[in-house]
From TrEMBL:
Top EC class for this record: transferase
The protein's name: diguanylate cyclase
Provenance organism: Dictyoglomus turgidum (strain DSM 6724 / Z-1310)
Catalytic activity: 2 GTP = 3',3'-c-di-GMP + 2 diphosphate
Pfam families to which the protein is assigned, alphabetical: GGDEF (PF00990), HEAT_2 (PF13646)
Amino acid sequence: MPYVRQAIISALNSIGHPSMPERIKKLLKSENPYERESAVKIAGYFGYEECKEEIFNLVNDKDEEVRKVAYENIVFFEDEKIFEILKEGLEKEKRKVREVIARSLIYLGKDKALPLVEIALRDSSPWVRYYGVKSLIHHNPPDLLSILQDLLSKEDTTLVKIIIIESIGKTGNVKAIDILKMLMDTNDKDLLLAEQSLVGLKTFNDFLNYIYEEDRERFKQRYHELLDKTFEYIIDEFKIKKGKDIAYIEMSMVGIMYKGKPAILGTTLDITYRKKMEEELKILSITDPLTGLYNRRGFITLADHTLNLVKRLNKKAIILFIDLDYMKWINDNLGHNVGDQALIDVANILTSTFRQNDLIARIGGDEFVVLGIIGEENHKEKIIERLTEKVKEFNTKEKRPYKLSLSVGYVVYDPENPKTLEELLQLADQLMYEEKRLKKQNSQYPFGRR
C-alpha cells in the first residue's frame, strides 16, 4: 500500500464522519460539475470505498476536469478494474487527461503500474512521457538503467531527455556516473544543456539563487560535505523558486572528478505534488470537509494555545456552544442535501459574525463552538446581539426553504479563576441545552409544522 494511502486512512480514522460517504455519493451524481469534482477529491483523500463505483463511472464524465480528478483518485482504491480503466484512458483520452493519468501511476502498485508506464513512455505528448519517466524511476524495475539508456537513445525532446538523464543519476548505480560522464562529452546541444544542470561547480551560484533563503545554508553545508568527502553521496529536500510559485525538489548529489577537478554531480526530482498532498492532508486532518471550519480535533489543538495566550495577555475569553435547532426536521422533511446547506449557512454566519482570529469549529453533527478573546466580560452581550442580528438578517434576505434558529450557551474564561477547556465546554453545553429546552416548552417552530 503506497504511503500516501496510509496517510489518507490515518486522516480518515481521525476525522471521518459515519454519514459522510453517503453524502459524498450524492454529490458525485450532482448536476454541478464543481460539486462532482470536489466530491471525487474528498472520496479519494478519505478512501471512501463506498464511493468507488461512482468515481469509476466519472472517468466518462462530459466535463474534462471531473474526468481528470476521477483518474487521479481511482489509484487510491483497490479493484481489478482500475488497470483496464487507466489503460483505456492512456490510449483514448485527451492529452491533458493522459498527463494526469501518467502522473498518478506512482501511486499504483508496481505490478500494475509498470505495463501502464510503458504505454505512457510511447505517448505522442512529451509531458505524458515526462511523467512516465517519473513513474518509472519511482517503481524502480530491476533493469531500470538499461531502460533509461534505451529511452534516451530514442527521445528527441529536450524536456524528456533531461528528466531521463536526471533519472539515470537517480538510480544510484555505479555505471550511471560513467554514462553521465560520456554524455558530457557529446556535441548534442540538448545534452549539453543537461550538463549545465548536472555539474555543480559550473552553476553553483546560479542554482543557489533558486533555493529559498531558509534552505540555502543547509544546501551549502551539504555541498561542502561532498567536496570534503565527509559523505560519498547525499539525498536531501529543498524548497526552490519556480517563477512566482514555490516548488520542492529532492536532490541526489555525488562527488566526482570532472575534467581533472573535483565536482558535484546532482540530479533532481520534483516532489512538489507530493508535498502539496502532504500539506492538504495536514489541513484535512483538522478541518471539517463540509463547512471548511475546524473540526473537533482542530479546535482542541488550537484552543489550548488560545487559552495560554489569554493568560499571558491577562485578558478574558468567551466560549460559545451553538446548536442548529430543528436539524432533524430539516433532514427528514427537506432532505439531507438541504440539511448540509443549512450547516454551511450557519458556518458562513459564524465566520461573518466573529473576527478572523477567533477560533470557530464544527465539532458535531449540528454543533458548533467559538472561542474568542474579549477585553471585558460585558463584551459578551454585544457578541450575542451581533450573532442574533446576523441570523435575523440571513432569514430576511435569503430565500431558503427553512429559517435558521440557533440555541447558544456561553461561558467566560477568566485567568484569575481558571477552568480547563473540557470544563468550559461542558458548562457552555449545559447552558445551550437549557436554552433549547425552553424553546421546546414554548412549542414554537420558526417555520411550518414540526
